[in-house]
């Protein structure tokens, strides 16, 4: 049975079903109880499962993550919420030094089936500290799986997979997609497996690799390009760690061109990893360099300026156009202009 | 060989067992604990004027969210006594480290209300000049500003200035590790900083009982060797008296001081919040009877310090202020996209020059 | 409308003005404060045996660093009373969350000394099985383990077990934000956890006076609503009595308890440290007179609970233990490089498979 | 006047000279006072400049960084030490949300001339949490400059530059190079400017791009390759942010081949950024994909196994050999083997 739901509703359904099926699952964080979370992703869970299963913690993120570590060591499966991307930073030590490492430190004698949900990225007119794209910090930390859905259906199934996973999963939720409605099948699974990317649209001329909030941008760009007679394939990573080399490489080998789209500031981001991997593995199939379309290397802008920062269809299409040329003459020419 | 301290030291660090009060909820005077002086009458009248203005500003800001002129606004209604006493207890050359909640303190300090609201209307992050106003940018990452306040206090001490820093924080923020580190650093450095905890009983939806099991948050001071006090945060006279003593303590080399002001957040966390999900309306109504502004007005009238014409004048001034603000906020904020690259570093890196040029080419492309 | 508490609540949360003591430095009994029971004689004799063994283990470990058999060792000498009382106060099914400093506690708990020293000899990170021993991996990132301890205590409570968790931490570690968050979470959750602060007066080179301005670290408890006590950490009888009371308090639903044990780090921070740079040798000599082992021995002999032959037997057992350890540590630790990929996740990712294969090809290449 | 000194001594000299020349400079952190720091980089500073200028703080990293923010707002120039890489994580929120952003948040009205010194990376047989390579976390955070010296001379001058810089600088010190002795000129400057990479060795056949602890590895590899008649150029980045595209691009355009060496776990690391940039800018000059030689995507190993993890001369030479082939057949073949 399928239903139209928003991504927020799909996530809520996934948490509800996980709480129902496994009594070891606990949901906690700031305002996830009676309020149902600032994005209402935990709406109704305390009502249905009681304060024991879904509860508010004191206001301290290292505390939330550290509590989850202890509870997981004690046999529970915590699913915790960091209220916003930048507000997970106080927990960074707990995440990098403990969540990511405990299994390894103890040679597998202890494991941490913890899901850390993080609403992230911008595009919703949020004020400072509420719009960071922090996925690269986690993707660069060995021992963490990093997931980010782009559809309501994936939101449901990837979250179910994450809760069932024996290892810690950083579950990055693109804020701006919380309210996007889609057909979602919470009953029988159609979604791809955990760790597999999805080809959202097939194309011949170039591959757009995107994840999370950038997937709709990629699809719109492909739509627009099609009108100009250019056929773009769109790959949605779904999981950043593990990374689905097979799907990405197969696509780029076929199209011979690749643009990576990432909302985060570009420098040393996940897009850099994708570009590096693709050229390592597809070099002799590439007719042009792998280009990146990203946010600028600046702190997230105030709402009034975020549209200038965010990768949009035009920025993607500009990149696609550049795939036709050598050594990006225009970019070099910009450099000269700039200096 | 083990550490020995006189219980004396200890008592000096504990707050009064009951919140300090000068004025009861009905506006009548009550006997305050020994050692606290009642502020001069003209100060209280000035505080009254600012409370009237502050509340009007707050109401206007909330109205602006409904008109779509403000993206979001965390109201101070009910907390004016804390915020205005906090400002009145300071000198112009003292520093203030506020949170997103403390807009009323800022306008009361004399900052341009439009500049104060720039962040919340979606304009640039901080609309006012922190260096010129000696007011740090309103801080969102909870409790982080309290350590900056300690650093600024230490800087003033080192420069031989006798300035004091007041760090604002909420009850929820006290649970963050940074608050602990700030208190400890302040105590060890004997920095001239006053920590003002506005305990408004909620952290968004989380009530105090889920936030802390302490007898009162003011009892946190002794664990750092910081003298502390708790005060009725809806009694302007009491808050001003206690904060004035705290600031004097800090200014005269006594080191840090911790004040917990018991108050209540009358409005939703922000306009985007839905309090019906987590608190009863009766609770809010009960606190109406503790309203700090009405209480001060009754008290000042009773003491003959405030006349009907003073009240009218204060409200008239506040209305004019609100009208000017409404008009000023009617214009859409403007911003230059290229400024995005101007303040990342003093000098943009080659990479930023490149990205600026990319944006420029995009904008020209859009034009044709 | 403001929060009201009875001063009663408050008193219940403050520690004794002086560290609790049963035995003076000269080994004679002193009057302990009311409410603390002296542990049974046989417990004290058992504690004595473990202290003799623990100290011998500690000396052996230090010796192993000189022989290059241990990369680094943070000695517990002088802190044995705290660590061994901590272990004796617990049941086998209770959990212990130790730091890198607490190796003596671990061997006293019965863990294989070679497994305990695996981390410090450069072998795998944690040499013992935390699940089987109910001892968390010795923790280096300071104070982080105290929150894990709260989580484990909460887990046991939820599973209906009456287990207790003891979290070890040093004086320096109490300055970290995580300690604050752990105390607050424990109090709000009423988790059955006992926080044992071994205040050994130094954080590497930083003396307590630079670490905190509190009358005593035990005064931190009241700020969270956690009952607290301070105890002479070199008086095994006192530490065991206080910790037993604390554990009972936690086990019987009283919630968390905070104990500060005043002790002293007799040796350098680790063998790599040079204390002459930051402390006077007289200070160390003074503390020799407060030695916990000598003190307990004198006391037990005075009470006729310990005879010369018991002392000899204890030392003989300790010598044999040390000899076995020395021999066991003579072999170089071994490790399989491919295990590097086995525990990152339950199932290696395709990327890890690739990297494992790369290493394999490198190792084969080296062979030919 | 030049002298032979270790990198630790050069850093010590830089701090001493900075303290002498500018009274606004303050040095503080854990054990940096009488002890002189666990690596002795601040040795003697408290003695010479007093507790007021060089002092120990209580043990709290967010506190150290936050204190520096306040002092810098108040007109001082703090140079602070995080004792080890992983022990900077508790300060991550202060660094990412405040140190990196304050100038931008205030439209340049406030600036933070703070230097955060972080001993990092491994190779010294350190136990867990003492050997992390954390440079990518900072390099990915807009508003931070990220520096890492590979020679004693650079250590001195880059640190002087960092202290003089109007903006926050994350100064990453490769632990294992602390004791390496070199000719160092602390009097008259020979070192390259801040933001410029250095060509440590010239070569024709391929470019090795490295930084910090990997520079000596690159030089040894070039030495070994030379014996087999292969001429490798070695570029030392010196500063990761800003990035010296000009020097790197010029070298790769000339050699037509590039291997990036990074000790950190590879995924989404700085090496990914370098590889991505190089192929973006040199695509049509490249005869082979840009390859990366990095640590594995695992938590830093225990001392007994670190040699298996760390990129060494052989791993670099293996990569150089692969530069001759198409689409890395051997790597693909490994993938098959693995699965
Ligand atoms: C580190 C951090 N975590 C979470 C948040 C999200 N948040 C914003 S306000 C708030 C509640 C704060 O409550 P309190 O400190 O009592 O201040 P109040 O809003 O009541 O004035 C939360 C959780 C934040 N801003 N920073
Ligand atoms: C978060 C963190 N910061 C810094 C360090 C480095 N360090 C290791 S031990 C130590 C001193 C700890 O002192 P204390 O807590 O009193 O414990 P003790 O060593 O005296 O037993 C420091 C600073 C660390 N391990 N973790
Ligand atoms: Mg509040
Ligand atoms: Mg200590």
Gyration radius from CA atoms of chain A, angstroms: 20 Å
Which ions and ligands are bound to the chains?
thiamine diphosphate, magnesium ion
Q: What low-confidence regions of chain B span 5 or more consecutive residues with pLDDT below 50?
A: 1-8
Structural class of chain A: alpha/beta
Order of helices and strands of chain B: HHHEHHHHEHEEEHEHEHHHH
**Percentage of residues assigned to helices of chain B:** 40-55%
Description:
The complex is a heterotetramer, with two copies of chain A (339 residues) and two copies of chain B (368 residues). Chain A has 13 helices and 14 strands. In chain A, helix 3 packs parallel to helix 4 (92-99) and helix 8 packs across helix 12 (313-322). In chain A, 37% of the residues lie in helices and 20% in strands. By secondary structure, chain A is α/β, with parallel strands linked by helices. Chain B is 45% helix and 8% strand. Chain B is built from 14 helices and seven strands. In chain B, the strands form two sheets. Chain B has a five-stranded parallel β-sheet, sandwiched between helices. In chain B, helix 3 packs parallel to helix 10 and helix 7 runs parallel beside helix 8. Chain B starts with 6 loop residues before the first helix and ends with a helix. Classes of the chains: A alpha/beta (339), B alpha/beta (368). The B-D interface holds B 124-126, 129-132, 136-137, 141, 144, 147-156, 158-159, 177-178, 180-182, 184-185, 188, 339, 342-346, 349-351 and D 52, 57-58, 60, 62-63, 66-76, 90, 93-94, 97-98, 102-111, 142-143, 145, 166-167, 195, 241-243, 245-246. Bound molecules: thiamine diphosphate (2 copies) and magnesium ion (2 copies). One thiamine diphosphate (TPP) sits between chains C (101, 140-142, 170-173, 200, 202-204, 265, 269) and D (30, 59, 83, 87, 90).
């Amino acid at each position: 049975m399928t239903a139209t739901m928003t991504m927020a509703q799909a996530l809520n359904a996934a948490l509800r079903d996980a709480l129902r099926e496994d009594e070891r699952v606990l949901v906690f964080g700031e305002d996830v109880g009676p309020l149902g979370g600032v994005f209402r992703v935990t709406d109704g869970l305390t009502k249905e499962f009681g304060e024991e299963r879904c509860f508010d913690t004191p206001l301290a993120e290292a505390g939330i993550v550290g509590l989850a570590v202890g509870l997981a060591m004690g046999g529970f499966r915590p699913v915790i919420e960091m209220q916003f991307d930048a507000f997970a930073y106080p927990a960074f030590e707990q995440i990098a030094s403990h969540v990511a490492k405990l299994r390894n430190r103890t040679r597998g004698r202890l494991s941490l089936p913890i899901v850390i949900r993080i609403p992230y990225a911008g595009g919703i007119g949020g004020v400072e500290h509420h719009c960071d794209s922090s996925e690269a910090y986690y993707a660069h930390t060995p021992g963490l799986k990093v997931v980010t859905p782009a559809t309501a259906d994936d939101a449901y199934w990837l979250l179910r997979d994450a809760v069932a996973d024996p290892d810690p999963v950083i579950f990055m939720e693109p804020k701006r997609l919380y309210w996007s409605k889609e057909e979602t099948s919470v009953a029988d699974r159609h979604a791809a497996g955990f760790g597999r990317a999805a080809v959202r649209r097939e194309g011949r001329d170039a591959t757009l690799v995107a994840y999370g909030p950038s997937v709709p941008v990629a699809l719109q760009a492909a739509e627009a390009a099609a009108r100009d007679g250019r056929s773009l394939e769109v790959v949605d990573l779904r999981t950043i760690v593990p990374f689905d080399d097979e799907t990405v490489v197969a696509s780029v080998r076929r199209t011979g061109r690749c643009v990576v789209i990432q909302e985060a500031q570009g420098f040393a981001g996940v897009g850099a990893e994708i570009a590096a991997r693709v050229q390592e593995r597809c070099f002799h199939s590439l007719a042009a360099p792998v280009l990146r379309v990203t946010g600028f290397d600046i702190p997230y802008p105030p709402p009034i300026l975020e549209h200038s920062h965010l990768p949009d269809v035009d920025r993607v299409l500009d990149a696609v156009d550049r795939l036709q040329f050598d050594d990006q003459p225009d970019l070099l020419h910009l450099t000269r202009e700039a200096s | 060989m083990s550490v020995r301290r006189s219980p004396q030291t200890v008592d000096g660090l504990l707050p009064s067992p009951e919140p300090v009060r000068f004025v009861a909820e009905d506006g009548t005077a009550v006997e305050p604990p020994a050692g606290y002086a009642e502020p001069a009458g003209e100060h209280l009248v000035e505080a009254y004027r600012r409370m009237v203005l502050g509340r009007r500003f707050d109401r206007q800001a909330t109205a602006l969210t409904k008109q779509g002129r403000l993206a979001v606004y965390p109201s101070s209604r009910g907390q004016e006594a804390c915020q205005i006493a906090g400002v009145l207890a300071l000198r112009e050359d003292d520093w203030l480290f506020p949170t997103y909640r403390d807009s009323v303190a800022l306008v009361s300090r004399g900052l341009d209300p439009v500049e104060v609201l720039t962040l919340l209307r979606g304009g640039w992050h901080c609309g006012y000049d922190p260096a010129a106003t000696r007011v740090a940018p309103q801080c969102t990452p909870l409790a982080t500003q309290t350590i900056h306040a300690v650093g600024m206090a230490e800087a003033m001490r080192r420069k031989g200035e006798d300035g004091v820093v007041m760090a604002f924080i909420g009850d929820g923020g006290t649970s963050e590790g940074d608050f602990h580190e700030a208190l400890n650093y302040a105590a060890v450095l004997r920095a001239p900083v006053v920590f003002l905890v506005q305990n408004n009983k909620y952290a968004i939806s989380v009530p105090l009982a889920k936030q802390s099991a302490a007898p009162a948050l003011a009892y946190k001071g002794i664990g750092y060797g910081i003298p502390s006090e708790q005060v009725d945060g809806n009694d302007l006279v009491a808050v001003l008296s206690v904060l004035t003593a705290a600031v004097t303590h800090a200014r005269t080399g006594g080191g840090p001081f911790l004040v917990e002001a018991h108050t209540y957040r009358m409005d939703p966390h922000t306009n985007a919040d839905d309090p019906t999900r987590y608190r009863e309306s009766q609770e809010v109504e009960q606190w109406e009877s503790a309203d700090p502004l009405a209480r001060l007005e009754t008290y000042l009238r009773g003491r003959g310090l405030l006349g009907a014409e003073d009240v009218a004048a204060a409200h008239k001034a506040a209305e004019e202020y609100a009208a000017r603000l409404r008009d000023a906020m009617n214009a859409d904020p403007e911003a230059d996209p290229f400024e995005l690259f101007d303040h990342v570093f003093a000098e943009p890196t080659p990479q930023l020059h490149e990205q600026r040029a990319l944006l420029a080419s995009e904008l020209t492309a859009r034009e044709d």
